[in-house]
Amino acid sequence: MCGAPVQGQTLPAGVDVEKETVIVGRVLSAEDQQPVGGAYVRLLDESGEFTAEVVASGTGDFRFFAAPGTWTLRALSSTGNGTATIAPESAGVHSADVLVAK
Q1: What are the φ and ψ backbone dihedral angles of 71, each rounded to 5 degrees?
Q2: What is the pTM of this model?
Q3: CB-based burial, 69-83: b 16+ in 10 Å, e otherwise
């Protein structure tokens, strides 16, 4: 069993988005744009190295705390797999959805 925490897009109390870089998004089916809950979402750094993993909520939501830079989001689910790239340049909340397909 994976120890990745289940995520949502609501930020915990005390998160200062003026100082922290937060990556949020949803895992969606490429076919019909419906949310894919329970997907494993991995955060890979610019060189492709694994950094973190979370489980998308029942509505496909996920969240990572990261640093500015270029990141790859990789979603793995029974519906299929997909990737997206995001490159936040500063602190704040940055959004990217991941479309999955077989």
Answers
A1: -130, 150
A2: 0.85
A3: eebbbbbbbebbebe
